[in-house]
Every structure is written in C-alpha cells, then in structure tokens.
Amino acid sequence: MTLTMEYGAILVALGFIAGIINTLAGGGSNLTLPALMVMGMPADVANATNRVGVWLQCASGMAGFKRHDKLDTQDIWPVLVPSLIGGLLGALAAAWLPTSWVKPLLLGTLLTMTVVMLVKPATLTPPPRTPIKKVKDTPSAWLGLCLAGFYGGFVQAGVGFVLLAALCGTLNYDLVRGNALKLACTLAFTTLSLLVFIADDLVHWLPGLLLAVGTMTGARVAVKFAISANPKTLKLFLFVMTLVGCIAAYAF
C-alpha cells in the first residue's frame, strides 16, 4: 500500500474530526475505518491500525480533563478492571473471528443505543446532583463495563456510547466526568488490543500515526468545549452522533 501526500492529509483531517467526536460522544471510527479501507487495507488491518490514533487521542483527552479537574482519578481503577477483562477477550475475538461479524455487531449496538436514548434518555444523562454509585456495589455497572470492553476490543467504533451507558446510566456520572472516565477505559483496553494486533503484525504504523496527529488535536479541542458547554448541548450532540453512527454503520 502506497500512502500519498493527499491521503496523509485526509487522514490527519479525519483524525481531527474523529478525535472531537470520540472525546464528546463516540463513533469517530466510523469516519476513520472506511478511510483506511479505501486506502486498500483489509478490514482487520484497518481495525488494528485505527487503534494507534484512538490510543493517543485518549491519552491527550485524559490529560485535558485532568488539567480541568474533571477526571476522577480515584475512580479509574474500579472501572478499569471489568473494562480490561472485556477488552482482552474482545481483542482476541477480533484477531481470530471472521471480519464479517464486525458490521452486524456495530450496527446492532448503535441501533440499540439510539433506541435507548429515545425511550429512556436518563440512561445516558442522569438528573443533576444524583449520587455517584460505586462499581463494587453495582453489578449492572460491572457487567456493562465488561461488555463495553469486549465491544471496544472487538470493534472500537461506537464504544463511547456503550461506556457512557455504563458510566452515566448505572453509576450516575454526568456527561463531562463520564466522558473523562470513558477515555481512561478506552485507553486501557485499546492498549491490550494494540498489543494483540502488534503481535499479529496487523498494524500499519505510518497511517496510524498520521491519524493520531489529528485525533490528539481534536481531543484537545473537544475537552475545552466539553468543560464550557451546556449539558443539554452535550446530550444533543451525543444523540446526533448515535444517529450518524447508525447511518455510517449501515452504509459501510
């Protein structure tokens, strides 16, 4: 595969948009995965290469939320344990199962999240000042984070919606703090995924790093917006992204 200057610029630009979308909601990989496949990558290679940009975007976004005191560092480890277990299983499944499983899982998950947001919007946006629950005292949160990790390790695209459902819907984090912890979870299981994909020699580093230039920049912009935005605006953005994600999953 030959990477031209034009394709490189497109990857950086799409990475920037995806970094914003992934930091505020989820589904940015619906842009970057098709772009990598258009360049001639098989679906499994594109899936693996995409994780380079996701990993660095998460690191950049977490640092931004921490600077603004919106990352609850004491809560990171409890939410990481089930996410890591699921993420490892998902990455192994992605490396071994047929790629034909990816699209049905992606589309089914995004359609489910869209319906949930329409029927029960409080699932992703709990009422203000609702007490935050502990993972150890909330079995549904443990299960939800484990499933989110599996989905993220297997597909990645749209995992932010699943994580927010677990973090905001079962543990009662607001969208800003939920997004910060979402990035921590995604960083953790993306690390495991990358190790599996690197071991299988599926990562193309140059396209992945070009994506990362864009995703890191987009994440920094998104954090600044999230801190100052009206919660209703974040909620609307999240809902719109689920719809866009459904359309993209169906189209590709």
Multimeric organization: single chain
Mean pLDDT: 84
Encode the helix/strand succession as letters. HHHHHHHHHH
Overall 3D shape: globular
Head-to-tail CA distance between termini: 21 Å
What percentage of residues falls in helices of 4 or more residues?
over 70%
Uncertain ranges: none
Largest sheet: none
Overall SS class: mainly alpha
Radius of gyration, rounded? Answer: 17 Å
Count up the domains.
1
Percentage of residues in DSSP E strands: under 5%
Helical stretch tally: 10
Q: Find the count of extended strands (DSSP E, 2+ residues).
A: 0
Main location: membrane
Membrane topology: Multi-pass membrane protein
Family: Belongs to the 4-toluene sulfonate uptake permease (TSUP) (TC 2.A.102) family.
Keywords: Cell membrane, Membrane, Transmembrane, Transmembrane helix, Transport
